Amino acid sequence: MASVVVVLVLAAVSLAKKGRAAPTGRQCVQLEVPVSVNTTATHWLQQKVDSNIDAVDYVYDMTTWTSPNTTSRILGEITVKETFKITGQLCVPAKGSRSDTLQIATHGVGFDKRYWDAEVKPEQYSYVNAALAEGYSIFTYDRLGTGGSSKPDAYDVVSAGVQVEILHQLTALARSGKLVSSSKKSGGVSNLGNYRPKKIIQVGHSLGSAIVIGLLTADGASSDGAIITGFLYNSQIGGASLAPWGFEFAKENDPKKFGDRGSGYIVQATKSNTQLIFLKKGAFEPALLDYAWKIRQPNTVGEFVSLTTVLGHPAPDFKGPIQDYGFCRGDCKNTYNVTEIKSLYPASSALSVYLQPGTGHGLTLSTNATAGYKVSFDFLHASGL
Prior knowledge:
By secondary structure, this protein is of the alpha/beta class. It is 27% helix and 23% strand.
């Protein structure tokens, strides 16, 4: 029977301010991974977004209570059969007792893989550095539609279900030891071609956490553990609104930066929107807000409407430990039911629900980030990972 551990932290941990030293001998390789997908996706009734005016109308349509609900927007199913380019970074510690345990990190809306590997004060904020210092290997990647990855149709193709299947295929490649050998190397070290992990831990943030949950539901045996950040089943999650993003049509928001994004790609409009969504007053440095704005990435309208297809279903085959970090419309206190969360992972060996203090939605951008990393690593160690 699964054990349940509920962790409620009420004060910041001093380790956050001390930071971690950058791991010595950081070995990373940049990859372009061809991922072949053959899956069924939902075709939705969606409003086209080809301008900033359209983007505002889209938010209005998605948030007005009299608008069609998600179920009534379903028009049918389509087959997505295509090979996509997924750009990623594999890092393996030069020395580490856990190097044969690979963390696969999936970022959320508004970012690409750089969310996990901050270039500003990396000793304090980089999750990649923290994982390597703890002895883990880690693979971060740009979700479909972001960073250097392929940017296909924003309505039906770049959707939650397709993102789940891409993570499924990346996990299978890593498990088989073919992640590097099947990819084009675009930089970094050249000695990781034979890397094959014995165990795989999924790590997600926000939408990335929803994608991880979708994978655990579809194929729980694919993963040995999971850390879910910026997402928690609770009474307030349905009240989260698209309005604070101030979405604009990506190509119109910044033609130079997002000129390769087509219809349906939207992005937060201003730096203030980025702060409102990801950061908490008194818990971030202005340089990290600047960084988050600098690396911002569009997402697609199809990802939002399709979330219901991957959430709310039990993951009966997932037997590893899972830790949930909260996202509850500003305050997670007294919003969740551990018994209900546990019912989604009936075979899990351990479940931890953790509320990180002094932290905004963007954990890796917050001054208390390192303390949160330590809690996750301690949980994994206690669970045998």
